[in-house]
Amino acid sequence: MLSFFPDYASLGTPEKEQISIHQMLAMTTGLPFDEETYPIADSRNDAHQLFLSADPVAFMLGKDVVHTPGTTYQYNSGTTLLL
Fold this sequence. Notes:
Order of helices and strands: HHHHH
Radius of gyration: 12 Å
Number of strands: 0
Distance between the termini: 9 Å
Largest sheet: none
């Protein structure tokens, strides 16, 4: 995934280097994204933060991997934005 974002190489980690396009499509990147716990208008909602971010790509690529890529499904609008 990171090879498609050379301008954001500084946000890379070994874990993020493992994330494939297939995992992005399957929403199994391991990147956290919570858009269900709080309403969309709540500033704690990740989708709210993403859409108001001055740099949505940096917002997503700046997240730490919390699950090994390819192992855990989580609906993730941020991954859709990256695709």
